[in-house]
Amino acid sequence: VMGALESRGVLRRMSDMLEMLMKRMDILARLENSTDFHKGDEARFPLDRFQPAAGLMERIQAIAQNVSDIAVKVDQILRNSLLNGKVMEGRRDQCEVPRDPKYPDCAGKVEWMRARWTSDPCYAFFGVDGTECSFLIYLSEVEWFCPPLPWRNRTAAVPSPPPPPRAQAAFRRDLARLLELIGTGKESLSFMKKRIRHLAQQWLQAARRLEQRLAGRQRDQKHILVHIGFLTEESGDVFSPRVLKGGPLGEMVQWADILAALFMLGHSLRVTVSLKELQSHLGVPPGRGNCPLTSPLPFDLIYTDYHGLQQMKQHMGLSFKKYRCRVRVIDTFGTEPAYNHEEYATLRGYRTNWGYWNLQPTQFMTMFPHTPDNSFMGFVSEELNQTERQLIKANKVSSMAVVYGKEASIWKGKEKFLAILNKYMEIHGTVYYETQRPPEVPAFVKNHGLLPQHEFQQLLRKAKLFIGFGFPYEGPAPLEAIANGCVFLQARFNPPHSSLNHEFFRGKPTSREATGTTVFQVSSQHPYAEDFIGKPHVWTVDYNNSEEFEAAIKTIMRTQVDPYLPYEYTCEGMLERIHAYIQHQDFCTTSSLPPSPKTKSPAMQSPPSPLALSPNSTHLVWSPSAGWAPQAWPPVASLQVWVSEPQHTCTETCRRHGLVCEPTFFRFLNKEEVFLQLSITCDSTEYEMNHLYPAVAENVRECYLQKEPLLFSCAGHHAKYRRLCPCRDFRQGQVALCRDCL
């Protein structure tokens, strides 16, 4: 005998079958009654093929009637069973709303159900029928706002058997299965699969190297859902139609590399690019998305984007809040804590189109390491072997330049720069066009049209210079050019581009730490190339200064550079990084600290601070003699606490000491005694919500501690404050990981 949910599931499937049969009957009826069909198509479709149509329709009608009768009977049995069960229990009309202080919202939720239970079919799917008992059963067994009803039949509590051992992840030796998982039907998916095939050997070699370095270390295999929300029809999918027309490819490059890395690490993947598939994989009940999932979430991790995050919130009901700790959001430009915290963003004017999700900031994963507040996901560029590097050096044409920009609009208004460049170099473009050459591209430019990736790479291997005209921002192409031996020349933005002067940045949930306000600013087209690579591979100059621009071109032509690719953008670097995140990042388990003195008995002495002054220095480190060491990642041995100067962010402060700001360490220094250890005098200490805290206003000797952990942030500064900054070391070429983070 099936339970209520199973019976209703059978009923729903029968209903679907009935609807399908009726549709097919209707199609057959239209075909049979169409005189045009019989007269005009006799030569191509012999009528005797459709002679049995009438008899077939009669049989289908009989089957449909039987299905309908069975469905009615099942529904009657189900209703009678429910009715009899409640009568037997003596509770059919005697359910009262329990008054339990542990469930303060129960009465209000029952009141809401009385008025609104028909607003979403999902409530009926879970057995709600308008009675008080059904409301309380739903609110106690499907949701968790009311206490369990004592008269409900429940299996006696027995100790759960220990879960079976998790399957171990094994590095894969082939990518064919991944290509099947990605599917077909969109140009964007075809592009991603081509990229994965092209880099397959590099992924396989990188996986073998990392496997050797990990030396047989045990790794649980994770069940991972990858939902690429921006490619769903419901989000508009503006990318797929533009893949072959010069549209932006950066996001698809990154998603292809994420899929390859997760797969090569040996995890179990499901890939979706449609809302219907997402609902099916999650177990969304039929309806409008107000009810929880029908069963526990079957995935350990979900990688998605802002579009997918919104779709999940709309369709998961209360389950979204329960499971959001398992989500990782691929977020090109990053989301800073001040924009992520809904209440704070609303009060302080940090509201944007994409923020206020109240996630842990490190659940957002960026294309470049913009801010340590988020996790750096990245992508990969093709790595050259020694033979290829030598060939490139031998075949470089010192007077050849390639312009960064496949869309004609990028070239508009750039005649002045192009004229200067044309004096010294042969200029090549890859601007998309269908029939006529774009008028924005000058006649002296050799335009190749939109090139396949391997042909574009061959062009870069010959060219000396890859020049950007300010857009697109922070794409993968400059790294590919530098990896192929080009010098990248880009414009310095003066004033910096921001939401105040460029529509592109309006609504982005980050200030990019340039100020303490809500203004997103970037100082160049590619800040990572400027800050993390720099000369001789990257030149950032003022394009409005013709003399500076021309001098840079002359110097670049004389400068010899080798192909260069940062380790963090190699296949091995990305595998290493994602492996570390999957093994160590856990946003579902609350981190614990030792109890504070206020929560302990007066007779107990508070433990000494685990931090201590570094010898002959003014910063704090984790003391080797500390009585405890938390299970933290990154390990606390990498922690250094420095005090910023006014108007300096923690990101900048740590960088000045050759370190990286680590926001997960803020919890260890958000204490009054840390100010004392740093010889900071506090006449008063307050707990407040502010993304700049912990900090000190030295002129008035006021100290501030952070009240809301979600607001711990490496970004932001103010002339009034010197901030306490948690810094850590990092692996050479891998800024996302500390030296002992693997």
UniProtKB/TrEMBL annotation:
Protein's cellular compartments: Golgi apparatus membrane
Gene encoding the protein: Mgat5b
Residues forming coiled coils: none
Catalytic activity: N(4)-{beta-D-GlcNAc-(1->2)-[beta-D-GlcNAc-(1->4)]-alpha-D-Man-(1->3)-[beta-D-GlcNAc-(1->2)-alpha-D-Man-(1->6)]-beta-D-Man-(1->4)-beta-D-GlcNAc-(1->4)-beta-D-GlcNAc}-L-asparaginyl-[protein] + UDP-N-acetyl-alpha-D-glucosamine = N(4)-{beta-D-GlcNAc-(1->2)-[beta-D-GlcNAc-(1->4)]-alpha-D-Man-(1->3)-[beta-D-GlcNAc-(1->2)-[beta-D-GlcNAc-(1->6)]-alpha-D-Man-(1->6)]-beta-D-Man-(1->4)-beta-D-GlcNAc-(1->4)-beta-D-GlcNAc}-L-asparaginyl-[protein] + UDP + H(+)
Glycosyltransferase family 18 catalytic domain span: 122-727
Keyword vocabulary terms for this entry: Glycoprotein, Glycosyltransferase, Golgi apparatus, Membrane, Signal-anchor, Transferase, Transmembrane, Transmembrane helix
Top EC class of this enzyme: transferase
Family classification: Belongs to the glycosyltransferase 18 family.
EC number(s) from the headed UniProt entry: 2.4.1.155
Region (Disordered): 591-612
Molecular-function GO term, any one: alpha-1,6-mannosylglycoprotein 6-beta-N-acetylglucosaminyltransferase activity
Entry GO CC: Golgi membrane
Keyword Signal set for record: no
Keyword Coiled coil annotated: no
Topology in the lipid bilayer: Single-pass type II membrane protein
Name of this chain's protein: alpha-1,6-mannosyl-glycoprotein 6-beta-N-acetylglucosaminyltransferase
Known pathway: Protein modification; protein glycosylation
Pfam families for the chain: Glyco_transf_18
Signal peptide: none
A GO BP annotation: protein N-linked glycosylation
Bias (Low complexity) ranges: 591-604
